[in-house]
Design a protein that fits this description.
Blueprint lengths: L43 H14 L20 H7 L2 H4 L11 H18 L3 E3 L5 H19 L6 E5 L5 H8 L3 E5 L9 H7 L4 E6 L12 H10 L3 E6 L18 E4 L19 E3 L11 E5 L2 E5 L15 H37 L15 E4 L1 H7 L3 H10 L6 E2 L8 E4 L7 H20 L1 H4 L13 H6 L9
Parallel strand pairs: 2-3, 2-4, 4-5, 5-6
Antiparallel strand pairs: 1-7, 6-7, 8-9, 10-12, 11-12
Amino acid sequence: MLLFEKSVSGRRAYSGPIAEKFSSKYAPAFLLRKNNPALPEISELDLLRHFTGLSAENFGVDSGFYPLGSCTMKYNPKITEKIARLADFTDTHPLAGSEALQGIMQIYHDFSLFLSELFGMAAFTLLPCAGAHGEYTGLKIIKKYFEKKGDDKRTVMLVPDSAHGTNPSSAHIAGFSIQQIKSKENGEIDLEDLKQHCSSDTAGIMLTNPNTLGIFESSILEIAEIVHKAGGLLYYDGANANAIMGKARIGDMGFDVCHLNLHKTFSTPHGMGGPGSGPVGVSAALKDFLPNPGIIKKNGKFHFTDNKQSIGHVHYALGNALVVVKAWYYARLLGKNGLKNVSEIAVLNANWLAKKLCSLLEKPVKNSVLHEFVLSARALKESHGISAYNIAKMLLDKNMHAPTIYFPLIVKEAIMIEPTETESLTTLKNFVRIMHEVIDEAKKNPEHAQHAPYNYSVQGIDEALAARKPVTCFKNI
């Protein structure tokens, strides 16, 4: 039930001083309300119970296994939350000036150097506030690079058919046209197709490595050589960096620009649109184009600096500073060897899980995987009418969050699973058991499976109708 439906005239959860009535001396007349807003009237106790009830219906990493492929939804250590909530961080105004921001500026300065060394880049900015924001920032840097060279013909960004959806979207918004590169049967990029698409119009290629199938692009050095020889640059989508920390470096693969997802790889909260952080790293040739302000250390103090060749500002002040603090402390706790261990365990968990599930559902690409893998329910749909969607909804009734489905698009009835390093063998075994239960039940009673879930306040819906005629507000508003 919605809060509006619980409203009873005359009830209130808070009593305070009556505000002076707004008039045109505060705002133009056309901005003033003609009538009072239609707000719910509800007691404090009912309000508390309403939101407590909603929280109980929510699902997150803290309440259960969250095997969402490609999004690295792993546990966030609560010590990082405690550090980020220290008054020295939370009570500092982001526009206070460098004298009042020395502590947070030191964290930014030191963490940028740490990321540069860990991933093999010349410099990092911590200002972008999400992965897609990082993509846009990195692509604007690429655009600025070619403008500086006077090469305005490079307007095409190459994107594999297995790419994350944000890649072509970000490239389009940044002003590039998109050309798709095919994948081979083994899930890696088709080098011949890449060669045919590289030309004097090519600005670059956007890749993640390992790719969205969980496969490491074994020809990455050759890919870099092909694109660089054509005059283009390589952009690294950092969504899958959890698989390579301390094992391989983005810069050593030949990438010129990258973004990371601190809200994924560095274990800060992730979901529901934020908060996030998408730092961007660049090679030496692109350092001057990083967004302003930068941070330098001089005479024992930290200073903001503006670069005239910069792409400009992508966020006021310091971006999502407290997310950066959590990620910085997480990295400090683990160190380089600890982060390497993170990747090793994530890869071990994914391969163990893939081995246990590949007899249950088809694994379209037979290669070994890294931190994630993709299965297909194609055969099950053909034999019993049970889709990846149905399996996902049945998992909800087992108190298990569903994996990613229908991505990547090159796999029919795709089910994408990423267990991360934080899950125990006990949890993984339980997931395997539940997956077997779900498939067995679906085969025995396909019609029942097609209408799952049954144990939630929101049950099976007509998604086509919801997309065509969405109801976005309460009827009485």
